[in-house]
TrEMBL record:
Residues 41-81 are annotated as: Disordered. Keywords: Hydrolase, Signal. It comes from Pseudonocardia charpentierae. InterPro entries: AB_hydrolase_fold, Esterase_phb, Plant_Biomass_Hydrol_Est. This is PHB depolymerase family esterase. It comes from the Bacteria.
Length: 353
C-alpha cells in the first residue's frame, strides 16, 4: 500500500490501480480461472465477500474514513422474500440480491440499485432503505454487487471504455440481471428503472444511455454523466472538475441528487447529468425547506410542458445518500429522502416508445 500511495501521488494512477488489484485480489467467490469465470454459489450465499479497506492516499476516490462505515444498520425484517442469486452471462457473472414484496399484483415495476465504492449490496440496501419503499409501493428491487476480482474497491467500472457500451462488460451483465429477473418473476417491462450512488450512480447513467429501451428512467445520486471519463486518471479529473458530456441521442427521464458540500464528486456533475439525459438546460429552482433537517433546491426540467428531469441540490450535505438510514454507509439522515423522491419520480415515468 505504501508503494501504491507513492505511485498515486506521483500521478501514475494506472500503475497504482494495477498494484492495488494485485495486492487486494484476496479470496472471493467470483473469480477468473484460465479465462473462465467460476462462481462458488454456496459459499457466496453463506459467506459474502468482505469490504476491502481503503488504502492510504486514495481518500479522494473512496471517501474519508468517517464516511466509510464498516458497520451500520441492518435491513429491517420485511414480510416479502429476499433472494440471493448469481447471474452468469456471456460477458461475466455478478451476485445480486432481490427483494420481492408482498404488495402489488400482476406485472410489477423493477428497480435496479447500484451501490458505491467499498459498499456491498447489503450495505446499500440498509443505507437507502429501498426495500422498505418496495414493500410500501409494490415493486421489485434488485441490488447487484460488484466483486473484488473486477475492482478491488468494489467500484463499478463506469470509467472503462469496455464497460460503457451496450452489449459489453458490466452494462451487459447488469442488463442481463434484468432479463433474468423478468424471466423468473412478473415484471412490467415498461417500468424498469435503475438508480445508483457515486460509482453506482455513474454506472446507472451508463446503463440509461446504453439501454434506453430497457430502463424507463434513471436516478443518479452523487454520480457523473455517461462518457465523461475513459480511464482512472480522467475519472479522477471528472470527479473534481465536472467537465460535462454530450446529450444522449435518445433522451431518458432522470432524477439527480447531490450534496453541495461533496468533496469527493463535484456537485456540478449533477446538473450535467440532467442536461445530458433530458437534452434541456437546467434553469429555475424551488427551495425545499426541512425543519429540522437540510434544505434542498429542486429544479424541475420540462420539455413541451412535461417534466422530464429533476435536479436536487442538498445544501450542506457531503458525499452521502440523502435521507439514508442513520449510521449507514455514506448516508446523510438529515437530508430529504432521496429514495422516496426517486420512487415518486419513477412512478410518473413509464417507458414510452
Amino acid at each position: 500500500m505504501t508503494e501504491a500511495t507513492a505511485l498515486t501521488r506521483a500521478g501514475r494512477l494506472a500503475e497504482a490501480t494495477a498494484l492495488i488489484q494485485r495486492t487486494l485480489a484476496g479470496d472471493h467467490p467470483v473469480r477468473v480461472v484460465q479465462g473462465e469465470i467460476v462462481v462458488d454459489e454456496e459459499r457466496l450465499r453463506d459467506d459474502p465477500p468482505p469490504v476491502q479497506d481503503a488504502p492510504d492516499g486514495l481518500d479522494d476516490l473512496v471517501g474519508t474514513p468517517d464516511q466509510v462505515r464498516r458497520s451500520g444498520p441492518s435491513t429491517p425484517d420485511l414480510p416479502g422474500e429476499t433472494l440471493h442469486r448469481v447471474h452468469q452471462g456471456a460477458t461475466g457473472a455478478r451476485p445480486y440480491t432481490l427483494y420481492v414484496p408482498t404488495t402489488g399484483t400482476g406485472p410489477r415495476p423493477l428497480l435496479v440499485m447500484l451501490h458505491g465504492g467499498t459498499q456491498t449490496a447489503a450495505d446499500f440496501a440498509a443505507a437507502t432503505r429501498m426495500s422498505e419503499q418496495a414493500e410500501e409501493h409494490g415493486f421489485l428491487v434488485a441490488y447487484p454487487e460488484q466483486v473484488t476480482s473486477a475492482n478491488p474497491m468494489r467500484y463499478w467500472n463506469w470509467f472503462e471504455p469496455a464497460d460503457q457500451r451496450r452489449g459489453v462488460g458490466e452494462p451487459a451483465i447488469l442488463a442481463g440481471i434484468v432479463d433474468e429477473i423478468a424471466a423468473l418473476h412478473e415484471v412490467d417491462r415498461d417500468r424498469v428503472y435503475v438508480a445508483g450512488f457515486s460509482a453506482g450512480g455513474a454506472m446507472a447513467a451508463v446503463l440509461g444511455a446504453a439501454y434506453p429501451d430497457v430502463f424507463a428512467a434513471v436516478g443518479v445520486h452523487s454520480g457523473l454523466p455517461q462518457g465523461c471519463a475513459t480511464d482512472v486518471g480522467s475519472a479522477v479529473s471528472a470527479m473534481s472538475s465536472a467537465p460535462g458530456a454530450r446529450p444522449l441521442e435518445r433522451p431518458v427521464p432522470v432524477i439527480a441528487f447531490h450534496g453541495d458540500a461533496d468533496t469527493t464528486v463535484a456537485v456540478g456533475n449533477a446538473a450535467h447529468v440532467v442536461e445530458q439525459f433530458t437534452g434541456c438546460p437546467v434553469s429555475g429552482d424551488t427551495l425545499v425547506e426541512r425543519d429540522p433537517g437540510r434544505p434542498a433546491t429542486r429544479v424541475v426540467v420540462r420539455r413541451d410542458g412535461a417534466p422530464v428531469g429533476e435536479l436536487w441540490t442538498v445544501h450542506g450535505s457531503s458525499h452521502a445518500w440523502s435521507g439514508g438510514a442513520a449510521g449507514g454507509s455514506y448516508t446523510d439522515p438529515a437530508g430529504p429522502d432521496a429514495s422516496a423522491e426517486m420512487v415518486r419520480f419513477f412512478a410518473d415515468h413509464p417507458r414510452r416508445s
